[in-house]
Amino acid sequence: MATLYRKYRPQTFAEIAGQEHIKLTLAYEIQAGQTAHAYLFCGPRAIGKTTVARLMAKALNCPNRKKDKADPCNNCTSCSEITESRSMDVAEIDAASHTSVDHVREAIIASSRIAPSGGRYKLFIIDEAHMLSSSAWNALLKTMEEPPAHVIFILCTTEAHKVPPTIISRCQRFDFKKIGVTEIIGKLSRIVREENIKVGPGVLEAIARHASGHMRDAESLLGQVIAMGGKESSAKGKEITLDEAELIIPRSYRNEAAELLEELADKDASQAVGFINRLAENGADLKVFSSEVVDMARRLLLARVSPELGALLRQELGEALEARLDPVIAKFEADTLSSIISRFIRAGREIKDAPLPQLPLELAIIDSCFSKFTSSEPLVTPVAPRPAAAPLRSSVARTRAVPASAPQAAEITKGPAIEPSELSNAWQELLVRVKQHNHSLSFVLRSCQIIGADGSLIRLAFKHKFHHDRLNEPAIRQLVEGLLEEIMGRRVALATLLDPNLVLVENTTPSVEATAPAAASVADAAVSAASIDSSVIDNLLKTFGGKVVG
Fold first, then answer.
1. Which of 66, 431, 481, 550 has its CA 20 to 30 A from that of 422?
2. pTM over 0.70
């Protein structure tokens, strides 16, 4: 018995699912008699490249094709021979098995000089063309550039970038795209009608979604589902239910991902965490689930940024999921979705090594629901230019940027000012204590500059985005602020900025700037030594590696 994808291979251009731009162009060329001597069909696997090549071969050699039509008759001898893969005028060559130059010379170059046996054209369909060797391409180059009038080449490949540019320039290139869920469901519906098979609601959609745009995968999976149900069962009026089909269809968590995003949109952490634990108890693959959440959140983000792009991506989800996600999009801001995506990507990586598989996902949910950053508070503090300062003779490097105000720390700025000596001592103790919790974090903290303090708000500048983003992770920020609070005995907060032009001191130890103009840097502190206790100056210079040079 023939497999479904062979039995229901399209025999006309209308039967091809998707690829409308390609069908229209090729149909026009066939009708007008303006075909090229070489074509390049490229795109993902299992989406119809070889099928279109075969259909084109039939249309060009069919003696009964009407002049105003592009479709072959599918009844003549030529059409039958091509359908059954026994035509002498159509050579299908697997380049993966015939990579050498000798095969190309024998199977293509020598054969191309022989006139077609019955049809008008001799067609060479080279599948997986990118597998040919360099010498084989060089041997084929001249023939493809100036082939005999009766020869047409059709190259099919999934990796067009591996085809030499000299070959591509001699071909008409057509880029095939993945097939949408709607088109796949339409083709599967026709198959089950022809096979007289009854399937329950949602079965075909589940198959189409799992196929991810690959028609042959969908047809193969449908064949497995039909085999499980049996034609006898359908003849007796029994349907193949979704529960039965899911025994065959690899599990997808798109519906579960949509449910989690609904709960995150409502900031319902309790329901979301409970939902994750129920998935874990039921044996769900949480790594696959986290990938589904990332994919779904990405679709929502793109829909939020561009409605047209969102509509295009939602076509792959099916009507049920599309209707479910439409009201969710309006509840999210773009930066919130971006943050959710980052957190769940990180959670997916951490699942394998976590003491509890669901723990990284729970933390990602809590961070998403309770993060201090909201849509009105940027994750990266904008950088404002600093007024030029008078040059000072100091070995301590200075940064030329200051952070913008931090609205989330407005109350902190009202507290008593932090003295430079207090801050420098606290920072050194922080560098020691933080190693007990996170050894690599100490390096991050040494890769920044302390550029000032407003009340109890400590301002930090980073040269590298990686270090900046690392400190702004909710758990890391909470750890650092908590340690500083223990050390200094007061509530403190951090405000960060990213300054690519920042110049760090040689030993990467931060410098301290007071908010008052007279204490803009360590050098300023040294210059104004008369107004500051000498022990403070000694402590600062020892801590930050500076020295008084004048």
1. 550
2. no
